[in-house]
Write a structure and sequence with these properties.
Oligomer: single chain
Largest sheet: 3 strands, antiparallel
Radius of gyration: 16 Å
Strand content: 35-45%
Distance between the termini: 38 Å
Strand order of the largest sheet: 1-4-5
Number of helices: 3
Number of domains: 2
Length: 140
Amino acid sequence: MGDTIVNQTKIDKMVMDMSQVGQTMNYDSSKKDEELDVTGKMMKEQMKPILSALVTTKSISLRDVYSTVIEPNIPEVAQMQMGKQNSSVIYPKEALKIGSSWTASTNESGMTMAMKYTVKSISDKIVMLTVSGGYRNYFW
């Protein structure tokens, strides 16, 4: 058996711009309460558990995940894409360096989520990535 690969994901900022059936909703987790409208304040409360969650997966290869732990144990995180994203990341086969980027998409419940991964830093045992993405045409 090879070395264990540990992948940890934490969302530190969330921005959403959604338009559905004539209604528009904008949310930015980095804004202060006084900068948010009523819907934004409601979203802030709903997203608070998600922004506090740390998802850790362990695998023996870049594709064979054998353990996923969400701390704190928040059912909403497990049900949403964040809880699944760690186990579905498609890593490139070529060597990575700082600034390397790649994209991948997954289909969940009829919606396509496109993600862009960029290498932020590399040390002996840790590769730090920034991840951006969204559903359908709402990304980057």
